[in-house]
Amino acid sequence: VEHCKMPKIKKSLSSTLNALVNVYNDFTTGGQVLFCKYCEVVVSSSKKFQVQQHIQTAEHAMKKEAKTSAKQQALLPTTLSRPGPKHSQFNQDLCRALVSADIPLNKLNNKELVSFLEKYTDQKVPSESTLRKNYVPDLSNETLDRLREKPMACTGLLELARAVMPDVNVLLSTVKKVFLKAPSRKERFRQISDTVPLPPSPVVTRWGTWIEAALYYADNFEIVKCVVESFDPTASVHMKEAQNVLKMDGLREDLIFIRANLVCISSAILKLEKEGLTLKSSMDVVQGVVDSLSHLEKKDYFEKSARFLLKTKVTAD
């Protein structure tokens, strides 16, 4: 008797990423991309070995050790100090409401307001100093946690773009290989292109370099095509692939779309990666991306990421 084999059920992207997060504590995910908490970059997760390779890099180990040590040092004073006062849910909600409504905390110094609140809430209204000392820091940390999702959302949008525009991926990869360790080809490019720089070499795990490379091709498409097509197609497999992809219908349109709509994400990622960026400045950067991408909400392949950005909008105090 022949036994029928049950078909394998393909896991969703979200479940695959969550499974990797459960195995490797170095990562987080919002369901779209795998994000390294220590290196603060999106890590390619199509193959498990790619995740393992990232963990084994010296840069990852160094950044993990540095952040772990910093976290332990930050916890040390808290461990040695006496426990603070028990937090009140009413005080916490009141603090959040005042901050969200842009109402200065010093308004609680108004006796009429305090009397009104205590009369109709049957709660003891805290002083301004109590909220500022015991509740504002928690609210700030909560806001920062939400803000940390923003770079992930930005990179998630780029990963989605890469998934729906595969020809752009092939272009960036193959042309990079055409000129890799090929001085004679580089010289040919310089002779034909005059002042145009050589094609960039994007790094897969650095989204800023991916979009910068796409922008380069959007601006210099015809020159790159002219140079690459001047080479012997039998010179290498990569040469033939590069020449073929440059002839693909829709490639130029994809590059123009990236140039017209995704430049804001590239600059936002670079700004958010800077150390010492204030909370207000970070929020302004994210708000700029939200405003720029709001018109993409009806485009099917960007809808999910654009909605996520809009839904998790953070407002400043």
Automatic annotation (TrEMBL):
PANTHER family cross-referenced by the UniProt entry: U1-TYPE DOMAIN-CONTAINING PROTEIN
GO biological process, one term: regulation of transcription by RNA polymerase II
Species name: Homarus americanus
Lineage: Eukaryota, Metazoa, Ecdysozoa, Arthropoda, Crustacea
Domain of life: Eukaryota
Name of this protein: CGG triplet repeat-binding protein 1-like 12
GO CC field: nucleus
GO MF term (any one): double-stranded DNA binding
